[in-house]
Design goal:
heterodimer, A: 516 residues, alpha+beta, Beta Polymerase, domain 2, 3 domains, B: 6 helices, 12% strand
Amino acid sequence: MPIKHPNLKLTRLTDAVPTWAGEIAVENLLEICRQVRDGGGRLVALWGSDARELRGGFMLHVTLINETGLVCLHVPLPEAHPHYPDLACIFPAAARMQRATYDLLGMHAEEAADHRKWLRHGAWHSGSFPLRKDFDAAASRTDEAEDYPFVQVEGQGVHEIAVGPVHAGIIEPGHFRFSVIGERVLRLEERFGYTHKGIEKRFESLSLQQGAKLVGRVSGDSTVAYAWAYAMAAESIAGVTPPDRALWLRALLLERERVANHLGDLGYLGSDVALAFGFAQFWILKEQMLRTNAALFGHRYLMDSIMPGGVAVDVTAEAKRVIAEECELLEREAATLRGIYEEHAGVQDRYIGAGRIEPKLAAQLGLCGMAGRASAQAWDARVQFACAPYDKLDVRMATYRNGDVAARVIVRFDELFESLRLVRQILVNLVHEEEATPALEKLPPNGFGIGLVEGWRGEVMVAIHTDAQGNLARVHPHDPSWQNWPVLEHAVIDNIVPDFPLINKSFNLSYSGQDL
Amino acid sequence: MYQILKQILKTGIKSETPPQGDESLRVLEQRLQQDILDVFGGALAIRMVDAGSCNGCELEIHAVNNAYYNLEGLGIKFVASPRHADLLLVTGPVSRHMEVALKRTYDAVPEPKLVVAIGECACDGGIFCAADAGENYQSAPCRPAVGHRPGVAPYGSRAQAYLRRGAGTQTGGGDRRVCL
C-alpha cells in the first residue's frame, strides 16, 4: 500500500502503471498530501467533477505519485458550497489547477493565496461553470473585456514589458508580463487560457472512439503520449490488456515522437543563439523522420495511430528495415551536430548558466519531465513504473544537475540517443504475430481509470470517468506543462530579456495542453 | 568552423523543386486577378496567428521553413508584425479568448490583405466543435464562405502549395477568406 491513513481505504486498479484509488473525507486531505510530500512524492494532477446526478455534490480528484505508484484520492464535496483546503501550500503546482477547477466547476480552494481566475477570461459569466452538467452555454455567454490584475512590481526604474497573446514567431498564444530594470528581468508573470476551447466539455458528448481522436489533439506535438494514456485509462476500466505486439508498436511510436520533438527543438535552440546552421541541419533530420512517419504510419505526427484496445497501425519487415536505417543515419548525424554544438564557444556562452533552476527549487516546485531531469529530478515513468513493454527494455534515464539551458540541451541529446537505441530494441522484439487487435467498443458503467505515459515533455496523464451507461462522463487530460510553466517564471529571474526566448525554448512547454 | 563547413558541404542542397500550384484547388478562381499578384510582386509576407490550435498546424508551418520546402527561397516569409504582412494565416478553431487578439491583428494588417485559414479546425472548428452550435461555449471558427479541403494537420508540401497559391489569391480589399 502506497499511503497509510486510518480513514483511507485504497483499492488497486487493474492498471498498467501501479495505481490505487480511494475515497477520503475532505478533513483528511491535507494530512495525506503532507505525508506524501514528506515521503518525497509529488502532485500529478488535480481536477473536479460534477457528481450531483450520480450521488450528489461535487468530487475533487487529486492524483499523487510516490515511489510505489499513483494514488488517486476522490474527495466528495457538498453541493451547496463545494470547498476544500488549499493544497498549494504543500504542492505549489496545485495553485493554477485549483484556479482552473474553480473557473470550470465552481469548486473553491479555501485560504488559497491566489484566487484570481485562470482559464476564464471574458467569454462566460463569473457565476457560471462550463463543466457543470447544467451549464447553459447560450445564457452564460458574455463578451466582458478581459480584466486581469497582474502583480505590479514597484521601484525606481522598474518598467513592464507586455508580450502576447500574439507572439512574433510561429508559436502558440499566451501572455508574458515582464517587470524589468534595464535588460534584467525582476519578475515574469504568465497569463494563459487563450487557447481554451472547451476540450473537457467536448469529451462528454463523444463516444470512446471519438474521444481517442480528440485526446490526440490536446497537444499536437504529444499526440502519441495522449492517445496512449487515454487508451491505458480505458483499458484499465475495461480490465483488458492489449496484445503484446500492440504494446511494442505503441512504444515504437512514442519513442519516435520523442526523437522528432527533440530534433526540432535542438534546431530551434541553435537558431535562438543565432546558429542558423543548427536549425537547418536538425530540421533536415526532423523532416526526414516526419516523411518516414507519413509513409509508414499514414501521418507525419502519428495522430490516430493508437486506439483503446490496441493500435491502428502495423509495421512490415520492409518498414522495420527503413526504421533501422533511419536510426543509424540520425545517430550519426546527431552525433556530429552534438560535437559542433559542444565545441561552439558562442553557443555554449549563451547556454551555460541561462535560465537555471537549482535541484532544490525544482523539487520544491515539482518540476517534472525532461526539464525536471535536467535539474536532478530523477523521475521517468518508463523507468520507475515500467509498464509493458518498457519492463523489457531497461530504459537508461538521462539526468543532469546544472538545471540551465545547457543542461536541458544535454538531457535532450542523451534522450535522443537513448530513444534511438530503444527503437532498435523494439524492432528486434516486434516479432510477427497474426494477432487481430480487438478494438474496445464500450466501457463498463461507473468506472474510473488512469493512464500515465512519459511523453517527450514529461508525464502525460489521462483520467476517464464513465457514467451509469458506460459513456464518457468526464475526461481529464493533464499535461506536464501545468507543473513546469510556473517554474519558467523562476528560471528567467535575473536573466536578460533577450535570453527569454532561448530559456523558453529549452523547456518548450505546451499552451494548448494546459489551456484545454 | 571547419566542422560546420564540412557538415554543410556534406549535407548538400536539400531544397526540392516547389510543387506547381494546382489549378483545381483555386476555390476563388473566378475572382482571381493577376494585378493583385503584381501588387505583391510574387513575394508574400505572412503574419501567423494561432487562434487556439493544438500546435499541430504550427509544427507544419515551421516545417515549410526547413531546407526541403525552403519557403523563404520562394519569396514567401513570415513576419513578426502584422504591419509588415500581406497575409494573415489563421490556425485553430478560434477560441473565444483569442477573438479580440485575432481581430486586432487582422485590423493591423494593411490593405490589400489576404486571410487564409489553415487546417480543419480553422475552417469549421474541426473536432473541437459540435455540430450543435449550442454546445460550443468556447469557439467561433472562421466559418468561411467558400469550401475547404479537410485534413489535420496539413502536410508540409500541401501547406507550401497552398501558400504559393495564396500569393495568387486576391481579396478585393476586404474580408474574403480562403479556407484550406
